[in-house]
Amino acid sequence: MAMYDEEMQGGWRSDLEMVTKTGGAFSFFKDIVKKQGTQQVTADCTFCWKSVTSTGASRLAEHLADKCVACPKEVKVKFQELKNKVEHKRKLATAQIVSAKEEMERDQRLNVEKKQMLMQLSLPAATKVAAKEAADKAIARFFYANGLPFFAASHEADSYYREMISAVQKAGAGYLPPGAKAIGGKLIDDWSIAAAMFWERHCGSGILMVARL
């Protein structure tokens, strides 16, 4: 291990104060040679005289913090502290990058899910609007083609039109309405009997004439 007199120790202690402010490791190396066209340097440690090759000052500082067998404790501790700070900053930066990436991926995923949800909601809504328009046109054509008075399409609570539409809706999409024969036969007979009973009950008359189609 190299021996230093008081003057030499005072020198590196002075340099150590500078290192505390700047973090520089070059103060503890001599015969520094820089490779032309690069950041690579080769220098001799002033404590153990070992030659160290480094890109910048990183390996020089690492040598003083961990590898130099003759490095004074004050210097070693200082560079270990600097090394720990650098590692902490590196880990913090990495964590921030990972966090930012995860947040960006989460936002992208949420945007995709939101778009998919909006598409799922908009498709049924658009289909429903189109189906309603088609149904309205079909009803209008039926009234026009058969010469039915338009005022028959009443939405009054007790109107037969509203009752008919409500019954069809409750029957569901697979409902197949009856044809002319069924309507002009049993269905109209059943209705006429019910109507006659109603009039008899309320008007005292049991006679109701119903013209078959």
Written description of the protein model:
With 213 residues, the protein is mainly alpha-helical. The protein has 5 helices and 3 strands; from the N terminus they run αβββαααα. The chain has helices spanning 6-22, 58-67, 73-145, 160-171, 180-203, and strands at residues 29-34, 40-45, 51-55. Strands 1-2-3 form a 3-stranded antiparallel beta sheet, covered by helices on one side. Strand 1 and strand 2 form a beta hairpin. Helix 2 (58-67) packs across helix 3 (73-145). The protein is rod-shaped, with a radius of gyration of 48 Å. The N and C termini lie far apart (124 Å). Mean pLDDT is 77; it is low at 1-23 and 206-213.
Summarize the structure.
Helices cover 64% and strands 8% of the residues. It has 213 residues and is mainly alpha-helical.
Q: What distinguishing features does this structure have?
A:
213 residues, 3 strands, disordered N terminus
How many individual helices? 5
N- and C-termini, Cα separation = 124 Å
Main sheet: strands, sense, barrel = 3 strands, antiparallel
Order of H and E elements: HEEEHHHH
Integer-rounded radius of gyration: 48 Å
* SS elements, strand count: 3
Percent in strands = 5-15%
Structural class estimated from helices and strands: mainly alpha
Average of pLDDT:
77
Helix content: 55-70%
- Order of strands across the biggest sheet? 1-2-3
Envelope shape? rod-shaped
Uncertain stretches of 5 or more adjacent residues = 1-23, 206-213
